[in-house]
């Protein structure tokens, strides 16, 4: 990290050390930050992005303050041959319709021999994050893990996706078991409400596809996004560290 950026981060920390707990909450420090390292997960073998593309419903997930959609969430994945375009539609906490777009690239920095089941999500206005498929049968369910760690802190997320708005408990248990065996707590996930707004699948798919097309399916500058992600996470980590001292 450039020295100038680090100085800016430290200056921000100095500025907030005397701020009260409500003010820290007002600053938007993410509640998902916690102590610990990311899990060393095993990825889906011989992952096929072509089979993975298409419509997915959010069944369960760890609450994420960066995700504006909170209920009736559907996502449409389009494999371009080099990356995955992702269009998400759902409702906010207040019931307002929300659409978000993102691009998922193969993670070329994770290893000299990149695994197609390890991708990186790049979207405007949010930190860049890994997307690791740990299990999927392509036809009914997908289990996904994502985690960012810095200086002893982590932001850890997991998801259960389904090709239908609901999944039987036995199928959800497959993801829970896979995550548990890798040291990930599935109890952190909440059930996502899938109501009438997510039933119009055909119309939703058309809207999502056109939404990504209208956006031009442009990928945000990866290096800038990675830099922004690191700075944001580092600053949030500093604030979380001092929070107990000034609450």
TrEMBL record:
Family matches, as InterPro entries: Calycin, Invtbrt_color, Lipocln_cytosolic_FA-bd_dom
GO function terms (MF aspect): pigment binding
Keyword Transcription regulation carried by entry: no
GO cellular component: cytoplasm
Region (Disordered): 203-228
Keyword Metal-binding: no
Signal peptide bounds: 1-25
Comp. bias (Low complexity): 219-228
Domain (Lipocalin/cytosolic fatty-acid binding): residue spans on this chain: 53-193
Pfam families, per database record: Lipocalin
Biological process terms in GO annotation: lipid metabolic process; response to reactive oxygen species
Keywords for the protein's UniProt record, in alphabetical order: Disulfide bond, Signal
Name of protein: Lipocalin/cytosolic fatty-acid binding domain-containing protein
Protein's organism: Cherax quadricarinatus (Australian red claw crayfish)
